[in-house]
Design goal:
Blueprint: H1 2-13, H2 26-29, H3 33-48, H4 58-75, H5 79-104, H6 109-117, H7 121-124, H8 130-140, H9 149-174
Helix pairs in contact: 3-5, 4-5, 5-9, 8-9
Amino acid sequence: MRIIAIAALLTFAMPAHAADLATIDCVAGKLAPAVTAKLHADVSRNMVESGKRPSYDPAVGGSIASAAAACGLEHDWSEAAIKAARVYTLAKLGLPIAERVIAERGFEAATLEDRFQTLPEETRNRPLTAAENQELIKGSVTDEAKQTRENAELLAEYFAFLSTIQYASFDFSQA
């Protein structure tokens, strides 16, 4: 009887299970194609509007939130996991458009991603600071002709997509 009581106490003392990273793409799978198309249009606009804070149609955010809530129920996610999945989904679905825009401006996504991956894991698993982002951009643009404010803002947005995917998936797996 004593062993059963101790086992019961240990069960209650153990933290809740972390969200299964294999389920994070559930949110994207529940979005209507029209929502994804609107998100892509917003990312495209955001990437070419230099100097402005990125913005998204409220319907996109609402649809992602609804899909995340449904996936949360389906997979028994915590509130923290649902929030991380929403952030991850926006960045993950926007990344291909960001890659296209930077390619149109003469940058290679694979090279920039490799540069991001050289950061220490503990840095990649949280949002980048402004100073870290600035150093990443400086190290990525060696051609003087490309060292413009507009390109710096463009790359900052691109690195934000990479960073968000990384830290949101990490947060999700820890939630």
